[in-house]
Amino acid sequence: MKRTLSVPGIAYGGDYNPEQWPEEVWAEDVALMREAGVNMVSVGIFSWALLEPAEGLFDFSRMDKILGLLHENGIAADLATPTAAPPAWFFRAHPEALPVDRDGRTLSYGSRQTFCPSSPAYRRAALRITDQLAQRYADHPAVAMWHVHNEYGCHNAACYCDTSAEAFRGWLRARYGNLDALNDAWGTTFWSQWYYHWDEILPPRATGAVPNPTHQLDWRRFCSDELLSLYRAERDVLSVAAPDTPATTNFMVNFSFEALDYWRWAPELDVVSNDHYLQSTDPESHIDIALCGDLMRSLAGGPWFLMEHSTGAVNWQPVNRAKGPGELRRNALAHVAHGADGIAYFQWRAAKAGAEQWHSAMLPHAGTDSQIWRDVVRLGADLKALAEVRGSTGTAEVAIVWDWDARWALELPSQPSGELRYLDLVRTWYEPLWRAGVAVDFVRPDGDLSAYRLVLAPGLYLVDDAGAANLTSYAERGGTLAVGFHSGMVDEKCHVRLGGYPGAFREALGVRSDEPFPLLPGEKVGLSGEVPQEATGTLWSERLRLAGAEAVASYTDGPLAGVPAVTRHAHGAGTAWYVATLLDPDTLAGLLGRMRAEAEVEPVRSVPAGVEVVRRRGTDADYVFLIDHAGQGAEIPVPAGATELLTGKETTGSVTLAPGEIAVVREPRGDVSAQRSDDRKDTP
Ligand code: GLA
After folding, report:
1. How high is the mean pLDDT of the chain?
2. Which residue owns the Cα nearest ligand 1 atom 4?
């Protein structure tokens, strides 16, 4: 049973690092937090060196004062275990706990998260400081949640040292039982890689040619599990001392991090939380917010907590873009729209020293006479006005299949094309749905699909038999399934599914392909059929032939002129589509529109281009978020007599969005939703 966070309404705050400032500053901090409506901050995340100045010697005097001050001011604490930043004394005593990279270099301390996840010395030290914190603060009235570690795997997702090698072998023994099974799974008859003794197996260290794919895939699985075991160990220590206090750790579901299989992590957290930063080079990073928010909501199975994002620029990209007018507010409320019940930043007060001195914060270097501060105060008021939204969740009829195994396997070296990026493929399919105002969930390949009218599987290169059967039987029972190219190609051992492509889905899709023809960067092929005249494909093509399906579009030129590129197959009571090339955005949008029409999937609301519409469903009302990312302003019909929560005003049949503005409309649940749920009775 998951423990819930007791902070009322939408939690609001950020990482608070008062230890970086003299005590005189703290009073100003809490006064300003109150002014901004901050009701929860994360403390102690990187405090290990101060909390334990020498091995086994603890000093909690500063933390006592900080927690006391927060409590006196009605601000809850999300108290962190400081284990992401072991102190220098630890590494001097345990140099063997330093991580080793793929090339065999031992990294030095002097930063953060430079420890080997498999190091017994690290685990002992981490659990000791965790236990001390748990014993001291389990009953502290300020402590509302445990923030376990920080961004597991951000800097040390893999360590290639001998200790890690030993742990990897232990993990492999548990997975395979014996070496014959491992040799079979890894296909080690290839290139004389057969293992006769467990001790021969190493992490996939730098080597002369391409390492074995299954070896690399199992290594990624192991690395994710190894860090998860550290999380579990800390959480268990905290749970013994404080059985009712929820625990979280901040995920990194964003554009750049791929190291952890969060489907395996999420059930272990009471509150599923995320850190999300914008990519300066992404002109539509609000779509990344939406995609990641939907993935978070799906991982959490409901509302989640945004543990970190930024008020302005970060400091770790080549050029760190500040946010434009109103963007801070649009970003934060878009996270709420996609299910966040807590909005927090890195960090409260901008640092004047240290590696992040040029990272934005809620209280900038310039102080309160700044745009960011004014925006932060306004956001605090907005979140207060949205308190009742807490606990409401999404209402999607479309699901996109998401799988970390597939992501890792697709991006292994020596693929037919090195240009395939899992997240890019998913985003390509997500974007037209976002633009059309269609709600999306993410599901595991073997997840429950019964709530969905349309299921999309882009880039699902690896799928096990259970996942494949789940997806194909979904179509067979009446669902609409669309599969993207290079999907279903290998099983969980990363072995090719024989007999023609796309292996696992061939029969359901009613097609058979015998050779991939990936396209070169910049190469385009024309398409004709039930697609616009100017339709093109890039990135991928394959020699496909129909085996029961009909061709919806075929190539007009290139090496495969005349060959089907998009197909549709009546499979059982449903329909299975195959999209064998990367369609240009308009053609893909049109195709997804057709699939939606056939599957009777409605947008949340029809909105002008650039306006995002998202619905959260509560017990008695729906909350419709309207966010103008295009900066054009809009007039959007909404039921009369509803309430726009940010202004508190009653609606008269529409809301007017000024350019760049946001509205959140509480709509009483009416006939439309009742009708939709009746319709669902015959959904597979
Ligand atoms: C991560 C970390 C924070 C901080 C921010 C900066 O998310 O968790 O401690 O370093 O990045 O963007």
Report:
1. 96
2. 346
